[in-house]
Write a structure and sequence with these properties.
The protein is mainly alpha-helical. It is built from five helices and three strands, in the order ααβααββα.
Length: 119
């Protein structure tokens, strides 16, 4: 059976990947860095300037966690390190953990709205 046809819950590698993504997203600082990368790639220096409350070493530590989780892709251009958002792991988390719960919740809200409007 190929890994593409197995469920993520049955695939230890997918589970470990998900754990790394959840761990990376657990930090408000790392989420803030990802939010900045949504607008486009940034150099590490630019990110440090935008998050002035943290020193460069701390920003780099957070970027390493994000890179390890596959949420940031790094491109080196000369002496600069460009950080790019990699949205696929977030989509994988959404598909696996969120979308299945969102549908029933939206249906429930829709039924509630209809029930309230018929009263």
């Amino acid at each position: 059976m190929s890994s593409a046809s197995r469920s993520p819950a049955a695939d230890p590698a997918a589970s470990a990947d998900d754990d790394a993504v959840f761990k990376a997203l657990a930090s408000a600082t790392r989420r803030q860095l990802l939010d900045r990368l949504k607008d486009g790639p940034r150099t590490t220096g630019a990110l440090c300037a935008e998050v002035a409350t943290l020193d460069r070493c701390t920003v780099m530590q957070h970027l390493r966690v994000l890179e390890g989780a596959g949420l940031v892709l790094v491109e080196r251009r000369g002496r600069e390190r460009w950080n790019h958002l990699a949205a696929v792991p977030i989509k994988r988390i959404y598909d696996r953990w969120i979308s299945g719960y969102a549908g029933p919740a939206v249906d429930l809200l829709d039924r509630l709205d209809r029930d309230l409007s018929t009263d």
